[in-house]
Amino acid sequence: MAKQSGGGGDGDGGGGDGAFEVAKVSNLNCIDLSSSDLHQSVALLKQACLDCGFFYVINHGISREFMEEVFEQSRRFFDLPAAEKMKLLRNEKHRGYTPLLDELLDPGNQLHGDYKEGYYIGVEVPEDDPEAQKPFYGPNVWPASEILPGWRETMEKYHQKALEVAKSVARIIALALDLEIDFFDKPEMLGKSIATLRLLHYGGEVSDPSQGLYGAGAHSDYGLITLLATDDVLGLQICKDKDANPCVWEYVAPVKGAFIVNLGDMLERWSNCIFKSTLHRVLGNGQQRYSIAYFVEPSHDCLVECLPSCKSDDNPPKFPPIKCGTYLSQRYSDTHTDLNTYRAGQT
Question: Residues in domain Fe2OG dioxygenase (predicted)?
Answer without folding.
Answer: 193-298
